[in-house]
Prior knowledge:
GO terms for molecular function: ATP binding; hydrolase activity; protein serine/threonine kinase activity. Keywords: Activator, ATP-binding, Chromosome, Cytoplasm, Hydrolase, Kinase, Nucleotide-binding, Nucleus, Phosphoprotein, Serine/threonine-protein kinase, Telomere, Transcription, Transcription regulation, Transferase, tRNA processing. Belongs to the protein kinase superfamily. BUD32 family. Component of the EKC/KEOPS complex composed of at least BUD32, CGI121, GON7, KAE1 and PCC1; the whole complex dimerizes. This protein is α+β, with helices and mostly antiparallel strands. It has 2 domains: 104 residues, 2-Layer Sandwich (Phosphorylase Kinase, domain 1); 158 residues, Transferase(Phosphotransferase) domain 1 (Transferase(Phosphotransferase), domain 1, Orthogonal Bundle). The strands form 3 sheets. Strands 1-2-3-5-4 form a 5-stranded antiparallel beta sheet, with helices on one face. β4 and β5 form a beta hairpin. α4 packs across α6 and α5 packs across α7. The two termini are 36 Å apart.
Amino acid sequence: MAASETTQFAPPQVLTQVLTYDPAAAPPLLISQGAEGRLYKTTHVQPDRPCVLKYRPPKPYRHPILDARLTKARITSEAKVLERCYRAGVRVPAVYALDLVSGWMMIEWIEGMTVRQGINDWLGERPETPPSPDDLPDDAPLVDAMKRIGAAVGDLHRTGVVHGDLTTSNMMLRPQKNSQGSGQPEVGDRAKALEGDVVLIDFGLATQSVSDEDRAVDLYVLERAFASTHPRAERLFVHVLEAYRGAFKKASSVLTKLEDVRMRGRKRSMLG
């Protein structure tokens, strides 16, 4: 989870309570903010144990009682999903602590870069024209990354969880423990751009579901994300689905349903 350049301002008073809960914690540093919440980088228990502090601020346009209930429900849901996945061996951030009343949750900091950044670094200097057959061997690292993505999604669905927002921005490439170097490839380092384990992040829209329809929609969202964000890698999406089938025994019915979801998507596009 690489920190981005974000305008800094004093964290809300409620977050200073984190220092009371954990006196060793570093002051929260804002790294990202959206409509529903803010992400801060801090530490947990030990100064060398970085973590993400996810804070859902009160919404002034909602009734206070309703807002408190929604915040509690959403943090609880996300924490339960993460715990379920973590116990099942799915690569997701561990949950360290949470405060349902104050509206924050501490989770593991994942080193590395997003899959989106890794793929873009890999494709960055490649020509826009379709590759010739002689270029296909060069795609081996990218194919391997696609397979790791498919296996990660298969592991997720096997636990009875659907992500709800599967994009390459919500996946991290975490350097393996036995790798050499700092563990954070430099932007533009094409040789190492696709190395590492795929870790799924941002479970704010995740739900517990065993529905083939929900799982197929998850895959369709990811497929469309590749089409819009990585059009030159879209032709290799088949490797994502192949690895998904290998990681998840019930994949056949999901992939059949995916065809239906694709058809509905095409109809909506035609109708505008």
